[in-house]
Amino acid sequence: MFYAIPLESRPTWRNPPWMTVLLILVNMLVFWGPQRTEEKARDRAAAFYIASPLPAIEVPRFVAWLEETGDKHLPQARALQKAGNQRALLAWMEHEDDFQQRLRSPRFVPTEDPQHADWTAARAEYESRLPAPFTRHWAMDYGKDAEFRPITWLTATFLHGSTGHLLGNMLFLFLFGFSVELALGRTTYLAFYLLGGLGGSALSAWAYGGTGSYGLGASGAVSALMGMYAVLYRLRRVRFFYQLFFYFNYVTAPALLLLPAWIANELLQHWLSGRGVAYMAHLGGLLAGASLMALVMLVRRRPLEVPTAQVAVPDDGFDTHVANAQRLAQAMKFEQALPQWRAAAKLRPQDQTVLSAWFKTASLWPDSEDFHRAARRIFRLRAHDEQTLQFQHASYRTYFDKAKPGARLQPDDMARLSRRFARAQQWGDAEKLFNALHKTAPTHPELGETLGMLVAALCHAGRREQAAVFRPQLQQLAPGSAALQVLGGGCRF
Asked: DSSP secondary-structure letter at 38?
């Protein structure tokens, strides 16, 4: 994994990058508007599906179809079937177009089958609850017999698959967009952004056409901005942060060097990774954006004005601490590196990379105050994305296993982590933290809320029996909670 983020230039609000802000707002409105509405409607339809006779009828036939077609993912399907994960199987079935064709054939459940009447009625009711397709309609279709719809090459760039997907793209859109917008002007910038998105979509259509699934996301257009940025700054030395697998550092180098590094990364990721990320869309955007910027600089009579930082940021010593810590760690002087990481974390308390380095170094001395402090700092991070949740859970497991003489968690930390782990479906740790909170702080003001979230998450995941165990406690701690009502209704949403 490789990424590089420029740190040199900053927006000037004397000439605000309004087009970049507008693009961010449009992407957010699409995701939290029609996409989220569709998602909620599908969740309600899925809840009906799970409670209906359909899983008992369709799931065995789906697994048999996978076996018949020799699908390599058959063991995974059988595992989901054994675990009773009907929601995951439903999502899988709906993305298998060939199976959907079979499902709609008269021979799927023949009229002479005793289950035919129940299946027909339940299937009709389920399909009536499904919303009109929005995301898949406007996304790029990579199916074998997909209709050629060039409009989706553009519309797909305003769709996203998850909140983390959206926020990640919008962060990079802002980081690179404001510099490019200030250099090109709003009209040309918008045109190049859209053309860059089309370039990314075109290459992904060529690379993934006929493979199934569908493509969406602003990453192709954002990659075009990255290509424009590298060509815009050319040989100007720009300070940026980079990560290569597990190694990270700050460096100053010509901006144009970023372009081949980004291109090489996308090619490598495409060859080594699965189909979950459309790396060819990134590559297409990079090439389109770099070409467009090179063209405009070639034909323009006056050279483009390259945005520069307006106000110098005073050096707070952060980079020095990080550099010292890395140097000492490379020399195997971990004990001397520890105070450097601590000082850097104090200056950047939300920097996960620094916190992780501090925590891992301190774990060499599991009875040290540094180990406990680093853990608490990680547990108190704002966790609005899946990556942070995973980071917190992995750190918690390490801390719980290694801390001497034992873990030292405050009640607020227990409540917070229990709710977050429930959200991340880490049921064992979520329950363990709730029980510890209930035992050590039985009057904690967030005790009922924490249990309610745990029960609601268990119900949502289809773990009815596990959720029902907490009914007496929930009645005592949060008698009027929505989770108790859901539990009383058999965990039906």
From this structure: H
Q: How far apart are CA 396 and CA 241, in angstroms?
A: 27
In this predicted structure, the answer to whether residue 408 has a pLDDT above a threshold of 80 is yes
The answer to whether 238 touches 253, Cβ cutoff 8 Å, is: yes
Q: Please state, in angstroms and rounded to a whole number, the distance separating the CA atoms of residues 457 and 493.
A: 11
pLDDT at 274 over 80: no
Tens digit of each residue's pLDDT (9 = 90 or more) over 234-248: 766 666 555 555 445
Cα distance between residue 112 and residue 122, in whole Å: 17
- The CATH number of domain 345-488, selected from 1.25.40, 2.20.200, 1.20.120, 1.10.10: 1.25.40
- Using an 8 Å Cβ cutoff, are 200 and 220 in contact? yes
Selected residue with higher pLDDT from 62 and 447: 62
| Torsion of the alpha carbons at 162, 165, 171 and 175, rounded to the nearest 10 | -150
102 touches 65 (CB < 8 A): yes
Sign of the Cα torsion 325, 328, 331, 334 reads: negative
Q: For residue 333, is pLDDT > 50?
A: yes
Distance, in Å, from the CA atom of 50 to the CA atom of 44, rounded to the nearest integer, reads: 10
| DSSP-derived 3-state class of residue 424 | coil
> 224, 193 in Cβ contact below 8 A?
yes
Domain boundaries of the chain, sorted by first residue? 2-16+140-299, 34-137, 345-488
Q: Which residue has the tokens 């192709």?
A: 220
257 contacts: CB under 8 Å, gap ≥ 6:
none
| Spatial strand order in the sheet of 237-244 | 2-6, 237-244, 247-254
Tell me how many degrees the CA angle 490-492-493 measures, rounded to the nearest 5. Answer: 150
Output the CA angle 366-368-373, nearest 5 degrees.
100
Q: Which fold has domain 2-16+140-299?
A: Rhomboid-like fold (1.20.1540)
Q: Which of 195, 228, 200 is nearest to 216 (CA)?
A: 200
Strand ranges for 70-169 from DSSP E: 140-141
Mean pLDDT in residue range 388-404: 88
